[in-house]
């Protein structure tokens, strides 16, 4: 019997990118089951069909199952669940609320309770070879200095409910690591494909592009603060390649990996390079972060600039994500994180082409 992969989070950005890679070439897989909430089923099927057409692949080896990660047995029909439980070999848990401005109640229900339910379900699988849990490097919260991959709870505070609930969820996953062959993936801020620029949502550094686009007619655009914090951005293709490698690597069992940039740029440099790529301009002058925070307290300004206020905290939090374990375990794989500077032109071009696509823009409140 070949491998049967079960994945949550489709048709989200990372899950879609993983499916695209699997369709291109993954000799390990016989079957893929995607857990999708019923209200997203039509969109998920459309996305799968488009991917299959793009990659000239048949649709025979993957299927969509309706469910809800916050329910017992993930809300899967009993008969279908029984069939899946017998054969699933790999679980990839991606489903989460990623919005920095999310309410605590919603974030806790999906990110924490949802992960608890996936943990419980994974324990029922007799043929499980690997449980991949997608956390985030920002479970470090407001910690500064060097953050190591084996660290989690250092009594830190958090910049938003997204970070806090992903921290709580990762704690739950660590509790089952002795029972399940688990690998925890902690990405930095995920951006579009390094070669094509393709992304499904304009968040993270794309908020800067939204601001540049709004202010492009001004004679100059200032820096936001001193920008001394590191901007840890990773292209989705690196994340997918590394994760796919770790899914099959025995060395990855019971480990946590920072899929972060090993040579990140300071936020000031990212801001500068991104403005140059998009507008052909250089920033001039500095507006303190606390002043921008004040301005961003007005919802009308946030919506006009199309940027979430919570983004500003990442301009000043000086965390350095050590990824030594990741680099060591990827040795010989040919997989490495591209230099951000070499991807920004592609990022800016894709943004320019798709900035008016409402499905890609975050609904700023």
TrEMBL record:
CDD domains: MupV_like_SDR_e. One of its GO terms (molecular function) is alcohol-forming very long-chain fatty acyl-CoA reductase activity. InterPro entries: FAR, FAR_NAD-bd, NAD(P)-bd_dom_sf. Residues 8-242 form the Thioester reductase (TE) domain. Signal peptide: none annotated. PANTHER family: MALE STERILITY PROTEIN 2-RELATED. This is Thioester reductase-like protein.
